[in-house]
Design a protein that fits this description.
Layout: H1 3-17, H2 28-48, H3 56-67, H4 71-91, H5 97-121
């Protein structure tokens, strides 16, 4: 009978000694998708519109700076950006009609996602 309180105390002690894990904000999935889109645009924009290239990498850096994520979340956001870039780099070497359509769809999705995050979670 005395072992049970001892076990509970031991478990509580072990849990208290374990490092706390950060909890993702509720918008993490949307941020990762937005990061992926920005990475895709970072590849496609200079391919299809080199004269009017936007600085999507700079936009991503600003997004990370504003969000102030911990190291784990920052790595995931950066990984999503790189995955978006690599996905289109595997498909396109020159701008095609398909690449232009993808870029248009991505711009619309990026704007919608950014607005959704802002309207739902901004203070």
């Amino acid at each position: 009978m005395r072992l049970r309180p001892l076990r509970i105390a031991l478990i509580a002690l072990l849990l208290a000694a374990a490092p706390a894990r950060a909890i993702d904000p509720p918008y993490q999935a949307e941020m990762e998708r937005l990061s992926e889109i920005l990475g895709s645009l970072y590849f496609l924009n200079p391919l299809c519109k080199p004269a009017a290239s936007s600085d999507w990498r700079g936009e991503m850096a600003d997004l990370i700076a504003l969000d102030e994520p911990d190291d784990d979340r920052k790595q995931r956001l950066t990984g999503a950006f790189n995955a978006g870039y690599e996905a289109y780099a595997r498909l396109y070497r020159v701008c095609t009609v398909s690449a232009e359509q993808a870029m248009s769809r991505l711009l619309v999705e990026a704007e919608k996602t950014a607005r959704d995050i802002h309207s739902r979670y901004a203070e």
